[in-house]
Amino acid sequence: MHSNRDKEEMEGGGEIEGADENEFAPGSSRGGRKYSPVVAHDNDRAVLEMSSIDPRSSRQDLKKVKVSMQPDVAAKEIEGSMPNHSVNGPQKESKLELFGFDSLVNILGLKSMTGDQIQAPPSPRDGGDVSITLERPRPTAVKSGTLMGVFVPCLQNIMGIIYYIRFSWIVGMAGIGESLLLVAFCGSCTFLTTISLSAIATNGAMKGGGPYYLIGRALGPEVGVSIGLCFFLGNAVAGAMYVLGAVETFLNAVPAAGIFKETVTKVNGTAIAEPITRPSLHDLQIYGIVVTILLCFIVFGGVKMINRVAPAFLVPVVFSLICIFSGILLARHDRPAVGITGLSSESFKENWGPAYQRTNNAGIPDPNGKIYWNFNALVGLFFPAVTGIMAGSNRSASLKDTQRSIPVGTLAATLTTSGLYLVSVLFFGSVATRDKLLTDRLLTATIAWPFPAIVYVGIILSTLGAALQSLTGAPRLLAAIANDDILPVLNYFKVVDGSEPHVATFFTAFICIGCVVIGNLDLISPTITMFYLLCYAGVNLSCFLLDLLDAPSWRPRWKFHHWSFSLVGALLCIVIMFLISWAFTVVSLALASLIYYYVSIKGKAGDWGDGFKSAYFQLALRSLRSLGASQVHPKNWYPIPLIFCRPWGKLPENVPCHPKLADFANCMKKKGRGMSIFISIIDGDYHERAEDAKTACRQLSTYIDYKQCEGVAEIVVAPNMSEGFRGIVQTMGLGNLKPNIIVMRYPEIWRRENLTEIPATFVGIINDCIVANKAVVIVKGLDEWPNEYQRQYGTIDLYWIVRDGGLMLLLSQLLLTKESFEGCKIQVFCIAEEDSDAEGLKADVKKFLYDLRMQAEVIVISMKSWEGQGEQQESIEAFSAAQRRIASYLGEMKERAQRDKTPLMADGKPVVVNEQQVEKFLYTTLKLNSTILKYSRMAAVVFVSLPPPPANHPAFFYMEYMDLLVENVPRLLIVRGYRRDVVTLFT
Question: What keywords tag this UniProt record (predicted)?
């Protein structure tokens, strides 16, 4: 029979809870269907009911499936309710159904019960609800393949303005030899980045956001958002660069289209005397703004329209390239163009070496020019010509198969363009004189066959295609960052899955237009380069980290990768950044750092299973193995407190821990460093209360974070507190990272509320700590413990009666490091024997404290004066009351023993009571309590050693001793060290 609770859970058709509560959040119902947890007990049958809210979503209704602990019954029920898909289908499914495997497979979306393919559930973030449905997938937006989704966008971005109107000039300035080196140097950077990108992109399903998604999931949300926003800015600015290039080419080809008067630039220092015209800045601005707006209208049309328009931009580009190479092959010396030599070995030799010189802002050689070009400067100018490899991954949300399309399409585009650049260096260097290369900014049009107009059209369309891809990828990148809900300030750019990011497109267009107004292509280019290189370095570092750690989840389908390639790629990116401009590098890194800092402060926490978490785990394992299990040297000793959260009494509602325990735990750490383990025990059966324990653990973890205490939460289910604590003290921790101090609250309420079970439990916990060799700190007066804002004055008094390895001294010094206690001073009270030299003892203790680098005042109380001093009146009253209660309890024990004819029994075990020893214990605690009240009544905190529970004494007696010890002392720490020194005299 089912219990009522199980019945409600299964008949309600409610929720399913997987092994990980973060993966399948209770209450998830967005998929139109809910599931209830299958609860199996020894005498229960688990019933799994799956019913569809929308009957139209499947071809046939799924009947109720019952899973019985009896194989024959289960097989019959399942055979009658499940369709037969194969010859052995029902028998195979019935066996799996017994253990819940078949239904689990269906829920996870591998295959539906009717054989229909279904969608895999999305990855959860921040514990958010994830709906899991068996319905047919809804029609999605248009998806692109490898060619149109990756190869064409990458090719359009790479084959842009730099190649047409700057590449021949670069060959003339650097020479053929260094131009080849330049192409190889920049190309190897993007090639290695493509390898890293391919590895990460094939390591699982990929959402929108491209490189941001990859970097964020590998290096964490803070790094991902900072690099992602910089890359977005780089894409937006790149769109402006391509628009300016297209407009400049158009105005050079059709000068009559200029609204304003052209700027004439005279040629100096060259053999060519004709002047070179340059379009007006205002024309560039006006035409650039108009073109940007027109491109935005295309982007608003969505992926479908972009895919239709992209070939119209690409085909003329390919045709123009054919015309350029045809013109190079057909060029002769007798061609009318001045400076065109045709393919000539003499030109090849003359143009082999570099000719670095000064130029004006238009790039025309001028001895008085303000700009001096060298290899580093050319790297900054040329590198945008090899960028664009992220154009396909930027549109990852619009791809049919990201794991196949991104590696194949990106690598093909990279190799194709790199080969084209290398061949072009040889051809350009052999076809014209150096002066022609340096002064003819449109050499590609000059040498094109049959006429230059084709090249002008190709240049314009190639740059417009690249601009279109930038304006397409940048908004989707920004929308992906906003959808991850890390930065609230980006919420305006959020979009629903499958929708177009219109707001992000408007914002991107605004940035693009702002850069178009600047109008100078050579000033914009280095800025783009820095942001691109920052993103490429992030991709390489991500792959390097994931490959080096080699976590079990790192299983990329792309096998041609190695961590050394990624490391070299990352170093190349950084080297190129500094080669171009250390000032721009510092600015870009500072911007990324500011965004990182802002995200870490204002951003919402998100656990994406990034590589840093894996690195921390690997480092922790290595550190743990290196520590071993040997005894920790006192110089390396850190307190690892185990905070016992379960109170002796009740806590306020929805408060999982005493509010001051976390404050006290922070007082045991120097500058907040160190780990605390907060534990609590839930009474009951583990199988029945496992979910309660998970809920309590989450609440306790949240509370610890709220109190800003470095620690972890653990909840243990046990039949009772004693057994639970005994298991905890034996098993908690690993190696030398086991907790070494047990911290708990003193049970002040046990007599007031007549909680008779507390003495035995309290004494049992102390004995367990002694056996396990754990230090103990018991806090009396926890309600009055100060927080970090409550300043304390006075003294911290130590009644150092037994040797405890220096733990009491160390804890007092740690208290002084906190702002609330930094105004206090330490006093150490020593009890000297009657015949000993009190002054000598005081000098020895002072010398000992001096060697320990501890500032404290030493006060010696001789045994003789201690015996002769008058006790405090309140101590005498407490002493008399304790005597009466012990006598009454002992009388009851004797009567019960006589009646039952058994030895004296207490706490379920025989005890031996030596009444004289009991009186001695009571008298000792009386003297100590009276001394504390005499000397330390106004102390901020009093430390006193914890006396061990006497063997064979009732727990009730020990509680009376302890109550008498702490009587009328408002704030007391009772400390017991363990068999290890925690302080040392030596350096």
Answer: Glycoprotein, Ion transport, Membrane, Potassium, Potassium transport, Symport, Transmembrane, Transmembrane helix, Transport
Fold of domain 634-976: Rossmann fold (3.40.50)
CA distance 390 to 395: 9
Q: H or E element: which one contains 9? A: helix 4-11
- Going by C-beta distance under 8 Å and a sequence separation of 6 or more, which residues neighbour residue 218? 200, 542, 543, 545, 546, 610, 611
Residue 357, SS3 per DSSP: coil
Which DSSP symbol is given to 784?
G
Q: DSSP assignment, residue 77?
A: H
Task: Locate the domains of the chain by residue range.
Answer: 166-266+275-602, 634-976
Give the pair of three-digit tokens for residue 585: 């590098």
Cis amide bond preceding 450, omega within 30: yes
Tell the residue number behind the tokens 């001051």, with chain if given.
660
Contact present, 476 and 504 (Cβ < 8 Å): yes
For residue 641, count other CB atoms closer than 10 A to its CB.
23
Which pair of structure tokens corresponds to residue 655? 């408060």
Q: Is the pTM here over 0.70, yes or no?
A: no
Length of the chain: 987
Burial of 509 (0-12, 13-18, 19+ CB in 10 A): buried
Q: Are 570 and 596 in contact (CB under 8 A)?
A: no
- Report how far residue 64's alpha carbon sits from residue 66's, in angstroms, rounded to the nearest whole number: 6
- Other C-beta atoms closer than 10 Å to the C-beta of 329 total 13
Q: Are strands 794-799 and 824-832 parallel, antiparallel or unpaired?
A: parallel
The two three-digit tokens of residue 696, written as one number: 């309590």
| Beta partners for residue 910, in sequence order | 905
Q: How far apart are CA 882 and CA 957, in angstroms?
A: 9
DSSP code for 19? S
Q: Which residues pair with 715 in a beta bridge?
A: 680
d(CA 284, CA 471): 19
What residues does 340 pair with on adjacent strands? 432
Nearest to 759 by CA among 936, 949, 932, 951: 949
Which helix (H) or strand (E) segment is 397 a member of?
none
Q: What is the pLDDT of residues 233-282, one digit of tens each?
A: 888 888 888 888 788 878 877 877 777 766 555 554 444 445 556 677 78
CB of 978 closer than 8 Å to CB of 805: yes
> Which contacts of 689-696 are long-range, i.e. CB under 8 A and separated by 24 or more positions?
689/717, 690/717, 691/17, 692/717, 693/717, 694/21, 696/656
State how far the alpha carbon of 252 is from the alpha carbons of 336, 650, 758, in Å: 20, 84, 93
Chain-centroid distance, C-alpha 418: 36
At CA 425, angle to CA 419 and CA 426, rounded to 5? Answer: 100
Q: H or E segment at 974?
A: strand 972-976
Q: Give the tens place of pLDDT for each residue, 706-743.
A: 877 888 888 889 988 888 888 888 888 777 778 888 89
What is the tens place of the pLDDT at every residue in 917-953?
Answer: 888 888 888 888 888 888 888 888 999 888 888 877 8
**CA 120, CA 442: separation in Å to the nearest integer?**
52
Answer CATH for 166-266+275-602 from 1.20.1740.10, 3.90.1150.10, 3.40.50.720, 3.90.550.10: 1.20.1740.10
